[in-house]
Amino acid sequence: MATARRNSRWTRSTPLGARKRAQLSAHDIEIFSVLARYRYLPADYIHAIAGGSFKYLTERLGVLSREPNLFVVRPQQQRENAAANHRPLIYELDQRGIRVLQERGVSVQRPRAPANFAHELMACQIMASFELGARERGARVITWPDILSSRNLPDATRRSPRPFHIPVRFEGNDFHIAADAHPFGIERSIAGERSHYFCPGIEADCGTEPVDASDFARSSIYKKFVLYLAVEAQDIHRSHFGFPNFYVPIITTNEVRARSMMELLTRITGGSGSRIFLFKTFPALTSFDKAPSPSGRMLTEDWQRVSYPPFNFLTS
Question: In what order do the strands lie in the sheet with 41-42?
């Protein structure tokens, strides 16, 4: 008797006789919910959040991604990495998975696919790390929906078509700045006292934009620094979001690039540095570095600053 041919990990079809129609479980819905929060995630990150057996999860994701189910999809862009055949597969919700959540009353916003897959993946992994760290240490991530429903959010911002875009005036000109991922906060408790730290999002840098370019017609690290500094100086984080404080996590691919950013910030501030910019590294999909294992280190470990002590969301 002929045996079913083993499929490529990249195809969505199944060998004849091996089609398996999925009866969705509560754990499947949890997988879909994770991918609703983070558009792209590798299987090991999905497992870290959704739990269960990793072996079962990877097998189940295979079933959910193949015909006739097609609830999740493996984005082809992940093959940009030379080691793609040996890394945990990256998944995204497909339309059928989105409809399953919507039928259960879960709102899933899916704008068109981002132009830079590696950048979006990096942002998703970083935000997932904040969630994992909060679970590990008993903190809470204050999500964008939480902020939108807060009484502290000004009505004008709530009614704005793009409330996460921060308006700022710099040298007589009007600009808007929007971070990667939505604004969020961290709530922690020490000896019964709660503290809150707020961020406009994260700045995930894959090394594709210039660091020291002062041409405001294009995106650059220089432009982001001066606009965020203007937001802080004008207290726009308070008037636009109602945030009592304001920190900008900047994550780039390696220590050399992080150091060049910190040196630029030193020059911009005349050596005084800034308390609001937090620096950390995380290898992008296109990096030759080993893919990082899922962890909560974005929350639990220190961030570097320029001319200020290291910052930690849980202990500073």
Answer: 41-42, 90-93, 72-73
Q: In the chain, list all ranges with CATH 1.10.10.10.
A: 1-113
Residue 34: which residues within 8 A CB-CB, separation 6 or more? Answer: 41, 46, 49, 50
CA-derived radius of gyration, the chain: 21
Residue 54: its pLDDT value, please?
Answer: 96
The number of helix segments (H) and strand segments (E) in the chain equals 11, 12
Whether residue 310 has a cis bond before it, omega within 30° of 0: no
Confidence at 1, pLDDT banded by 50, 70, 90? very low
| Digit-coded pLDDT (tens) for 162-172 | 999 999 999 89
Structure-derived torsion over alpha carbons of residues 47, 48, 52, 56, reported in degrees to the nearest 10: 30
Architecture of the domain made up of 1-113 = Orthogonal Bundle (1.10)
Rounded (5°) CA angle 274-263-268: 55
pLDDT in tens, 241-269: 999 999 999 999 999 999 999 999 999 99
Check if the beta carbon of residue 297 is closer than 8 Å to that of residue 131.
Answer: no
Q: How many whole angstroms separate alpha carbon 183 and alpha carbon 146?
A: 10
d(CA 131, CA 55) in angstroms, rounded, equals: 23
Torsion, Cα 131 135 137 143, to 10 degrees, reads 40
Is the predicted pLDDT of residue 82 greater than 80, yes or no? no
Among 63, 66, 71, 70, smallest CA distance to 29 is for 71
CB 35 within 8 A of CB 97: yes
Could you read off the pLDDT of 284-303 as tens digits, one per residue?
Answer: 887 777 778 999 999 999 99
Is 60 exceeded by the pLDDT of residue 5?
no
